[in-house]
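Q: Convert this sequence to structure tokens.
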Amino acid sequence: MRQASSTARFQKARITQHAALAVLLVMGGFAIAGPSGLLAWSENLRLLDQRQAQLATLEAEGEALRNRVALLDPEAADADMVGELLRSQLNVVHPNEVVIKLDD
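A:
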């Protein structure tokens, strides 16, 4: 009887050790090959650099748009900007300007 309970405890301990080893192996696999593991590190750095370049481009475009909006403020609109928009959007010209059409 005593030997049976000792064997059962030994088997239970062995199963627990195998389960712990399996969990550690899975965690190690994710640490190496997971989405944020060592193998994905260079890819993540490349994506970070790409996103930072996109962010810099978008910030520059945003600054250009903010500047354009400031120039078109109804209280103090910039005459050159208004003239440019009139010419491009409404196809109008000043009376003393000459339009020259170029064939493509």
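Residues 1-38 form one domain.
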